[in-house]
Amino acid sequence: MKNWFRYQIPIPLILAASLSVTYLLWQHEQRNATLDKKTSFDFNLREATSSIEQRMAAYEQIVRGAQGLYAASGAVERGEFRAYINALQLGANYSGIEGVGIMPIVPYAQKNAHIVAMRRQGFPDYMIRPEGPRGIYAPVIQLEPFVGRNLQVLGHDPYADPAQRSAMEQARDSGAPAITGKVILVQHTEAEVQAGFLMFLPMYKKGAHSDTIAARRANITGWVVAPFRMDSLMAGLYGRRASMADITIYDGVDMTPQTVLYDSRAVSGEPRDTRIEATEYIEVGGRTWTLAIRSLPEFDVLQGEDSSRLIAIAGIGLSLLLTLLSWTLLSGRARAIALAQEMTRELRESEARFRHQAQHDALTGLPNRALFNDRLEQALAQARRHRVRLALMFVDLDAFKPINDNLGHHVGDFLLKEVAARMQQHVRASDTVARIGGDEFVVLLPSIEETQDALVLAEIIRRAINQPFEMPDGKVLSVSSSIGVAVYPENGIDEMQLSRNADSAMYCAKQNGRNTVHVCQAKIAS
To answer: Tell me: the pLDDT tens digits for 274-319?
Structure first.
């Protein structure tokens, strides 16, 4: 009986040890999964910000086109202006913009003559609103398309409102587009009240030089105006992502109910379960917008479930199995040595598999973010010790999301594995290629002679990815990549600086037309 108790003493210790290993592996996978989701979420935030900036840049070009008509001729007939705006098909191609209008400057002394002239043009009820004596007026004399609620705008004078006048004067003095803060448009109806804003662009005398503020103030003849409705604008821009994240846009940097320009939660009318939150700032027409985005449970589904639950279940099962085997081994002295050896082998194999899962991407087999960060830290320590350069590349596939959306995730997964294989074919044994989330890869070159060495390899990788990919069903797909390069020590002396600058360089490559390599221009003072 004494020997039996002696054999049973290790069993609780074995169970506790195996469960502890399982817990550590589970916790590690949880951290990696959270980090991967945060990285993917940050990418979606940058994509949403870029989409808004691009859409507003397109609207600016529309307003500049109207400005160009008057700059070229000095006077434009109503029919000519109507034909130009109608050709743009604003309602079909540009959601959110209510129209484009003209606002000439009318001095107080010319007010009555102006009203008479407008009534002779076919507007018998035309008046400048709000009424009252002012030094100058800037009424809307035409807003196209001149239908529906846009009919209410004729004669409205935004210059009478101090906040809107400030935006108009900003546009006048800078010669660039300027927008107002949050306003309720004249076109609103009681059944549909949306927050909006106005964009102004100045018109100057034809042929006059307006190189200085004084000259621009002297030569101003009026403004081109474009009213916008935020809910309509965002419905056309952000509608496809609405199921993955809530987005709120604030006018300015103060995130208060009074400054809300757009809130997708108010549009849906449903309470949402927020998971991840982030904030970004956008400069639009001389004003700052604050963009707050919050992920929803659907975002987690899109990212795919992490393997932490599998690790926990398998670990607990193996722990119990290990405990049972230990009890059997310790109870049966004749079989103890053989069974102990088999148990140890299985445990080591299981730990090796778990360790590999915790440090490698399940789809491509490449190192994941955790393992890559460890290698980057070691490479930086070696570079500092031996005073050599190293390079870090951020590689992002261009327009990868439409492939997943249109052809299915199985095609996207196959393409990611093929891209990973091609990248590994062109790096040295000492280099590291890792996947850090979605369609984002990183490459670590722990030792290079010159920056040009990294650029040469980046170009080789870019060209390799550009080669067509043959799918299992015989179809051929093409994809390109944008690559950002940062070099130690010129562009960073630690992991954070290098990663931030390589990501920034990759983002510049995106902005410069994609399918290109961009080296970081930021220099770190030594």
So the answer is: 567 888 888 888 899 998 888 776 655 555 555 667 777 877 888 7
CA distances for 273 relative to 33, 58, 262, 294, angstroms: 19, 34, 19, 9
Report the half-sphere exposure of 28 (CA within 13 A, side-chain side).
18
Write out the DSSP string of 207-266: T----SHHHHHHHEEEEEEEEEEHHHHHHHHHGGGTTTEEEEEEESS---GGGEEEEHHH
Cβ–Cβ < 8 Å for 373, 357: no
Judged on CB neighbours under 10 Å (0-12, 13-18, 19+), 149 is middle
Please choose, from the candidates 108, 113, 102, the residue with its C-alpha nearest in 3D space to the C-alpha of residue 141.
102
The CATH number of 74-226 is 3.30.450.350
Query: Could you give the CA distance from residue 220 to residue 224 in angstroms, rounded to a whole number?
Result: 12
Query: Of 49, 30, 27, nearest to 38 (Cα)?
Result: 30
| pLDDT tens sequence across 443-480 | 999 999 999 999 999 999 999 999 999 988 888 999 99
Q: Containing H/E element for 492?
A: none
Say if residue 240's pLDDT is above 50.
Answer: no
Structure tokens at 280: 């970004």
The answer to whether the CB of 63 falls within 8 A of the CB of 177 is yes
Residue 335 has pLDDT above 50, yes or no: yes
Residue 120 banded pLDDT, cuts 50, 70, 90 = very high
Give the whole-angstrom CA distance, residue 132 versus residue 518.
58
DSSP 107-127: EGGGHHHHHHHHHHTT-TT--
Please write the tens of the pLDDT for every residue from 55-70.
Answer: 888 888 888 888 888 8
- What is the CATH class of 369-519? alpha beta
Alpha helices for 398-519 (secondary structure H): 401-407, 409-425, 451-466, 495-511
- The conformation of residue 152, written as its DSSP 8-state character, comes to G
Both tokens assigned to 255: 């995130």
Q: CA torsion sign, 103 to 108 to 110 to 112?
A: positive
CB 226 within 8 A of CB 96: no
Read off the pLDDT of residues 132-153 as tens digits, 9 standing for 90 and up.
Answer: 899 999 999 988 888 877 888 8
Nearest CA to 126 among 109, 112, 146? Answer: 112
Instruction: State how far the alpha carbon of 15 is from the alpha carbons of 106, 292, 319, 342, in Å.
Output: 88, 47, 6, 17
Helix/strand/coil for 350: helix
Q: What is the pLDDT of residue 334?
A: 46
pLDDT for 340: 61
- pLDDT band for position 127 (cuts 50, 70, 90): very high
Asked if residues 499 and 487 have their Cβ atoms less than 8 Å apart, the reply is no
3-state DSSP call for residue 143? strand
User: Do 199 and 179 touch, CB atoms closer than 8 A?
Assistant: yes
Does the reported pTM lie above 0.70? Answer: no
Q: How far apart are CA 454 and CA 25, in angstroms?
A: 35
How far, in Å, are 51, 159, 168, 177, 207 from residue 75 at the CA level?
Answer: 35, 22, 21, 21, 13
